[in-house]
Structure of Cytochrome b561 and DOMON domain-containing protein:
Amino acid sequence: MIFIITIDIYGLSSSLVNAQADSCSSNLSLSNSVPFDTTSLHCLAVWDSQGFILRYLQTNNASIWSFVVSAPADTNSYIAIGFSTNGAMVGSSAMVGWVSSSSNGTVGMAKQYYLSGSSPNLVKPDQGSLQLVSNSATIISQNSILYMAFQLQTNQPESQLLYAVGPTGVFPSTPDYQLSEHRTMVSTSINYAAGQSASESPYSGLRRGHGILAMLGWGILTIIGTIVARYFKHKDPIGFYLHISLQSVGFILGVIGVICGFILNNHLNTNVGSHKSIGIFILLLGCLQVMALLARPNKESKFRKYWNWYHQNAGRILIILAIVNIFYGINLTGTGHGWAAGYGVLLGVLFIITIVLEIRFWIRR
């Protein structure tokens, strides 16, 4: 179903000249463009970094709610608001609106989408659980601001709301109106009665625990344990027991981190196949390293050199994959630039220490 659209050409043109930001102190004058009353809406700034403003009201008809979402028009992308039962994108229903220019003129459209999965082909247009009031949805560009307005027939809308901005210059188009993956998004919760909104990340504690445990276990302690094994053999048995202790603690923390990852993936049902596959392979290598330790031959055994070759190279592969997967996991969150920088600095310090110890090792030999 395609909804009735109203476009303010003057506002769209002015957005190219002078981008403005909406605010709750601004006068909302959409009465001639929106098919419902917008004069008494409650107003909240819901996403400051993207300039998103949400206006809403439960009408005199208690089962109908009015919504107006606004954002700067100079983003040159679609804007979206999703209604979720648990704060996650998958399983939510969203209203998406855009105003685009083409050889046929300026076209604006607002459509409902159902997000059955995280890949674009699983985002279904004209589907979802939102009961839209007929002919209430519209998208307007006015005074350099996009306004997406619609009404829902419901006694109580979902309080977990998602907001998203699409990729620059990419809009859904005929015939299938496939929605490209968002450029950025945020998950929030709203108290309609109190007029309060707060940003949140679904299962943020579990996400943080998964990342910290995996980074500390596989990406830090395992590396330090390997450094101890190579450069402190002359300190045996203290060096050996320190190596075993570090690797054991790293393995335990890494396993807990992997378990947290499985639980997180089960709750969010997100598409992290590559990250998950690499993590499982790292876990298998870690388990093989533990079993190899139990089967370690004596120093006098003719098989010892083969065991050493396997143990050392399996450890190197594990460390390389762990580093790659940690950075990949941080990238998947979309908000972990500080974590990536911090871990990169730590790896740099460990690398410098390794270079110094390697030089001393060769000098000693």
Notes: DSSP finds six helices and twelve strands in the chain. The first helix runs from residue 9 to 15. The radius of gyration is 27 Å. The mean pLDDT is 86.
